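Cross-check.
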Amino acid sequence: MIRVGTCSWADDSFVKAYYPRGVDRLRYYAEHFDVVEANSTYYRLPDEALVAGWADKLPDGFVMHVKAFGLMTRHPVKAQTLPPDLRDEAPVDERGRVHRPSPEFRAEIFRRFLAALEPLRETGKLGGILMQLAPYIVPKPSAYEYLEWARDQLAGEHVLIEFRHREWFERPAEPLSFLEDNGMTYVTVDTPVFPLVVARTGPTAYVRFHGRNEGTWFKRTGSAGERFDYLYDERELGEWATTLRGLSADGAENVYAMFNNNGRSSIGDGSPNLLGDVARRDIAQAPTNAATLKALLAEHG
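Predicted model, tokenized:
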């Protein structure tokens, strides 16, 4: 089964250029796609009541992957984003970021994260836990040790590992072998700055599409829409449709294609305005990319 979806359903581009006015966004999304990533969980620990609301809105058979909280993937996290009781215990640096937390403190973060996901788990809608590693983590013994430790904290869950430093992709045999040996799923990434390494390390193949806009990749901005500003064309997506079918034919039990292009593009709809110019309209890139890829996959069964 090849499932196609997006890496969020509530980014600014969705709100402004995808949803009809007045709809429940997650319900509307689930009418068009059968998989999504929860992205807000990267910024704050999820709340079980919020997760229960997600589970209630999603139909049976829907899959929601959940992005790990930043502290779980070694990203810098402001202590103020933590629950009040943990905030008081957190060691912080001069910028108010959690600094060198103890294994016990970090393990408590993992425990609370997993506990909050129970509504998705009990309804059979929880997919994988996406561990998107910090971009300064490189393939060295301490990194592998941390991944082993994190795997133990996430025992029983489907763990998805996304590398974000070039060195992981330049000599991929070792990290791929490590993930396979440890029962973790490698995330293939389509980006303008890393070598493309299409592979799977278990029964699931997982691809995240970050676009191919090298000019914005390293741009310091608070907007993911700017950084991952890219609308794939039909030729590019057609090539990926062939690759995804190949992964499925090669024995993958599940193939996920997830679009992280959360910007907007302006396109012409073919109708002239009063001045004779072609009218323009904004589209949300991620759901447009996803819908196009779904159509291409459906064309050839």
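Residues 190-301 form a domain with the TIM Barrel fold (CATH 3.20.20.410). Residues 234-249 form the longest helix (16 residues). Passed to J.P. for a second look.
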